[in-house]
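lol forgot to send this yesterday, sorry. struct tokens for the thing we talked abt
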């Protein structure tokens, strides 16, 4: 079984796993009792991932995949979570291979902490001893503040807005509560997994390899490109070479399978058997997802122990019972938030903070980040030396000791795996762990997660460009300084391939960047300076005097090809006008020049009013040099008459016969991320600068009141969209 479709960031997560919002890492469960229930729910998701220059879908050529949903406490942590990603099987290792994975993810049941059957003392009693004692320690401090306020006959609000010297004991006790609450979050995170969508995933993986490397790119000019709204609409042949393959082409196809969660093992084996050891020619018109058997999990939901109500000890009952009500809980939450705000502004008073907290949230940083993502305007090398966090693309979980597991579910070695989880803040489960949430996102630096995704996709794009250049006969790049050696395009392609693989293995941005060769590093610096080049997803549209490249002429020879220029109805906005035109690709050089090559063979060496000339002499001829224009986001020739326009995937939407191939996939084309950031912005716009956990608890609460499931706010994170009606 092949097992590289994903690195599951939810591996080994169980009910009671806890999470820290600042790194989104899951830790082992802190629940020690059977306090969950299971409901059966059947839901299936199909997806296609991998690499192909002839197909666009949300998951093709991505290098890493966005998580559905996000978990965060503050606005900034929610943004970081929205941008997080996990590594998938997304890039072929060489220009000779195209790889694609078809997957089915099936949900069979949703497990959840059955809060409707629990009170706060009972829930506390269901936690492991260390976690329970830490929570009770914070409660002792909370009760001590209440007692001191009662003894001095003053409200907490009055004490905090009065001169600090007037009620020093209250201030000191409050600081002890803040410290105890912080220590709890340091040890047990700020969130708890209270629900899991259980299921399994599996699929088949194809690797198609041409014996002749040149065959991989031979149809680059006039192949059919598919803008895939549905994965089922794309055949294997379309993925491999744009449906243009010669039936006699020397191409081999290998098929392997993978399964994660043995509940789908039988179906995956049947699926795999249909394709194993089958020649590519016999697979040409196969739509792999259509050929999948019924991928629903027929064995039903996982079996879990019966619900058992925990019995609180007298100590727990007495301490929680002493709360009586939560009249001042909102003051505790605001005091905790004030301590956080004061860390950034030591001169801030409590009264000033309260006024500021009621203002609208400032989302200027989020709005700027959204625009940067949309336009691919991400500077990946900014402050690169300070970015040292390891494995920024893969959020891992801490695998628990098997002796610690009392439940029958053990991650992906058994029948079922987590496909999605619901997380609740501790402050929504234990009232005295009150806190405030800062919803503003201003002066936001581009997150490491986004920079990592962009850099990875840059390396994959540049690898593809230099592989295609080499296969097109451009074997060398001459240097301006003739004393410097020629640069081999194949070596550049291999270097970018290698560094992309390092990133997928968890290397930092700095480590990956410093693994580039000197010529590759110079090229990447220039690429990163001209971020709009990332928008050349379908190549560059050639325009000279309102004309583009539409057909070859008969005037060429073995060393050059001449293409006729014909009028094109392009107005600078309607990029669908390039659907039948030959496109070119950018070729950045170590000397900070940008050449162009294509549409099928050769380097663009000259352009006239009626024709364009492409030379085939290995890259040693003088090429046209194009100057980047940051304002118009285009490339211009020295004489100013030729302009190259980056073409985005959206230009091909709805066009069945778009000709050409893709050279770049990037974060700006990730509709999932765009949707996630939009959803985040809409949610935060509804909130004031600060909100408080106390809003989730009624003031007349008492320790005998059961939780209300619908009133416990939860956040969903998963490999799939949030299951319906949960």
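and heres what i got for the seq, position by position
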């Amino acid at each position: 079984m092949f097992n590289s479709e994903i690195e599951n960031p939810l591996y080994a997560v169980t009910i009671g796993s806890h999470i820290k919002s600042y790194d989104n890492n899951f830790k082992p469960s802190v629940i020690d009792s059977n306090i969950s229930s299971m409901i059966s729910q059947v839901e299936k998701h199909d997806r296609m991932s991998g690499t192909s220059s002839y197909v666009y879908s949300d998951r093709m050529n991505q290098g890493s995949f966005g998580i559905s949903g996000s978990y965060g406490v503050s606005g900034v942590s929610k943004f970081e979570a929205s941008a997080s990603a996990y590594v998938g099987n997304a890039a072929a290792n060489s220009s000779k291979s195209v790889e694609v994975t078809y997957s089915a993810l099936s949900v069979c049941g949703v497990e959840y902490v059955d809060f409707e059957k629990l009170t706060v003392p009972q829930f506390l009693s269901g936690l492991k001893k260390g976690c329970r004692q830490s929570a009770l320690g914070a409660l002792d401090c909370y009760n001590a503040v209440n007692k001191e306020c009662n003894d001095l006959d003053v409200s907490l609000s009055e004490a905090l807005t009065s001169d600090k010297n007037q009620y020093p004991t209250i201030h000191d006790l409050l600081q002890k509560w803040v410290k105890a609450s912080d220590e709890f979050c340091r040890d047990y995170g700020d969130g708890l997994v209270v629900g899991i969508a259980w299921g399994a995933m599996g699929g088949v993986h194809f690797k198609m390899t041409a014996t002749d490397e040149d065959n991989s790119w031979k149809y680059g000019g006039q192949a059919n490109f598919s803008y895939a709204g549905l994965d089922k609409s794309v055949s294997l042949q379309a993925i491999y070479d744009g449906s243009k393959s010669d039936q006699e082409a020397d191409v081999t196809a290998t098929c392997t399978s993978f399964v994660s969660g043995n509940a789908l093992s039988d179906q995956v084996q049947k699926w795999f058997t249909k394709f194993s050891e089958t020649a590519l020619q016999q697979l040409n018109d196969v739509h792999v997802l259509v050929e999948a058997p019924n991928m629903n999990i027929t064995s039903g939901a996982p079996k879990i122990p019966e619900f058992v109500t925990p019995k609180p000890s007298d100590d727990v009952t007495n301490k929680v019972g002493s709360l009586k009500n939560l009249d001042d809980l909102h003051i505790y939450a605001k005091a905790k938030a004030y301590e956080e705000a004061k860390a950034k502004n030591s001169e801030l008073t409590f009264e000033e903070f309260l006024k500021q907290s009621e203002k609208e949230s400032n989302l200027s940083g989020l709005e700027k980040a959204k625009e940067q993502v949309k336009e691919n305007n991400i500077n990946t090398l900014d402050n690169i030396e300070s970015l040292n966090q390891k494995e920024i693309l893969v959020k891992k979980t801490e695998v628990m000791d098997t002796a610690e597991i009392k439940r029958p579910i053990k991650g992906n070695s058994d029948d079922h795996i987590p496909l999605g989880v619901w997380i609740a803040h501790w402050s929504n489960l234990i009232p005295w762990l009150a806190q405030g949430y800062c919803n503003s996102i201003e002066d936001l630096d581009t997150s490491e997660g986004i920079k990592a995704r962009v850099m990875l996709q840059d390396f994959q794009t540049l690898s593809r460009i230099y592989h295609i250049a080499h296969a097109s006969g451009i074997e060398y790049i001459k240097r301006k300084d003739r004393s410097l050696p020629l640069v081999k395009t194949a070596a550049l392609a291999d270097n970018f391939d290698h560094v992309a693989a390092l990133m997928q293995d968890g290397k930092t941005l700095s480590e990956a960047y410093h693994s580039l060769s000197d010529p590759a590093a110079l090229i990447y610096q220039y690429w990163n300076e001209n971020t709009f080049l990332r928008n050349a997803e379908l190549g560059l549209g050639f325009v000279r005097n309102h004309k583009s490249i539409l057909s070859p002429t008969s005037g060429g020879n073995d060393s050059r090809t001449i293409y006729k220029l014909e009028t094109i109805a392009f107005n600078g906005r309607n990029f669908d006008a390039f659907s039948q035109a030959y496109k070119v690709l950018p070729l950045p050089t170590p000397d900070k020049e940008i050449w162009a090559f294509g549409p099928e063979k050769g380097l663009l060496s000259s352009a006239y009013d009626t024709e364009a000339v492409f030379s085939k002499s290995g890259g040693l001829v003088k090429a046209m040099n194009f100057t980047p224009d940051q304002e118009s986001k285009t490339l211009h020739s020295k004489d100013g008459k030729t302009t190259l326009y980056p073409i985005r995937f959206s230009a091909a939407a709805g066009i069945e016969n778009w000709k050409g191939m893709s050279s770049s996939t990037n974060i700006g084309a990730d509709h999932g991320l765009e949707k996630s950031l939009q959803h985040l912005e809409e949610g935060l716009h509804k909130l004031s600068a600060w909100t408080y956990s106390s809003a989730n608890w009624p003031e007349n609460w008492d320790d005998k009141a059961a939780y209300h499931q619908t009133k416990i706010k939860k956040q969903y994170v998963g490999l799939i969209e949030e299951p319906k009606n949960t």
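The chain has 17 helices and 27 strands. anyway ping me if u want another try
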